[in-house]
């Protein structure tokens, strides 16, 4: 009974905290929107819209689209390159987080074109890095590795200290290819290079990756040591996201060992960190994991409580896919609790959500295809204009060359005429001198 009271208290505290965070975010968003309406210049509007979009990326991801699209449209109209770069980056990230990788690539490539035209090495590296991540998630591992090699070459030129991070990204690709040995070796290289440049953040990430790869190689004790070291470093850095990821991996190893108590203990720490930092998505995910752990322990009431709290958070975020999956879990949980009417209702809701999710996915796919078509059309138009400009420049250069040649011919012709004139003048003068000399000779 005491445990149930504690769980209820935690749920109430979590809901109050999340409600406060949501309210604060809404107030901030409303404040930004008011500033946008009274902004004196379009360039200020673009900056504010991009700020608003960035905020939504970390809360209700899908809402990041509207302000970013508006920012991009204004930035293109007033030729605000920084605004274009930020807007396309946010749209790329948004679609990436929504797992719409084709649309994500469209915006990343669009932004990369702008960055390359400006020769902005910082944004070029960001876009190429994000494109490589998309390729990885699409299972295009060869393309991803090729992109990382290009990134590393650029980094060696512009910023050698950041090379270690991309070795780590390459290691994750080898992991996706189930080549755990190469993944481990590449992560070791990343660790070595991070130590050389004293990059503590990448070093802590390297230990986390080494833990994942060692776990895949069946070396769980070594994996656990790496994850614990990564967690310690993340804690020293104040990196809450990193701490959560390390704790998740530690919990997984204990869960596989059947040590559910330790797994739940680490899950408690994740919940505490996520609540303190207002990390809604990690908190919801941790509650879902908690529900799964209690299900494994046949503690279905506790599992149901965790799933319900997770569901309320997913609803706040508007994450339809997570809402659908958690509703199904609650439906199965209700069956195990022998609450069949509740199970029927939840599973029916799940079917409706699945139908809605399918329709939204179809609409997004159509919208993505339209964006792709419009982008390709614009690229073709830009290519045509570029060729026309190239032809005009060639004709202009030819015209300049023609005029220059005419000038040279005119100068050369003038010089020849002048020389002929001088030659005739000299011959005429010599002839006069000769005649004058003859006359003098006759008189004498």
Provide an overview of this structure.
Mean pLDDT is 79; it is low at 1-24. The chain is mainly α. 89% of the residues lie in helices and 0% in strands. Among the domains are: 29-138, Tetratricopeptide repeat domain (Serine Threonine Protein Phosphatase 5, Tetratricopeptide repeat); 279-365, Serine Threonine Protein Phosphatase 5, Tetratricopeptide repeat. The protein is built from 17 helices and no strands. It has helices spanning 2-38, 42-57, 65-78, 81-97, 101-118, 121-137, 141-158, 163-176, 180-196, 200-216, 220-237, 240-256, 260-277, 280-296, 300-317, 320-336, 340-443. The longest helix is centred in the last third of the chain and has 104 residues, at 340-443.
Count of individual helical segments: 17
Share in helix: over 70%
Question: Which class of secondary structure composition applies to the elements?
Answer: mainly alpha
The CATH homologous superfamily of the domain at 29-138 corresponds to Tetratricopeptide repeat domain
Radius of gyration: 35 Å
Question: For the terminal residues, how far apart are their CA atoms?
Answer: 155 Å
Any idea of the CATH class of the domain at 29-138? Mainly Alpha
Count every beta strand, where a strand is a DSSP E run of 2 or more residues.
0
Report the sheet with the most strands, covering strand number, pairing sense and barrel closure: none
Proper CATH architecture of the domain at 29-138: Alpha Horseshoe
Low-pLDDT segments, ≥5 res: 1-24
Q: Beta-strand percentage?
A: under 5%
Q: pLDDT average, as an integer?
A: 79
Backbone shape: elongated
Indicate the CATH topology of the domain at 29-138. Answer: Serine Threonine Protein Phosphatase 5, Tetratricopeptide repeat
SSE pattern, N- to C-terminal: HHHHHHHHHHHHHHHHH
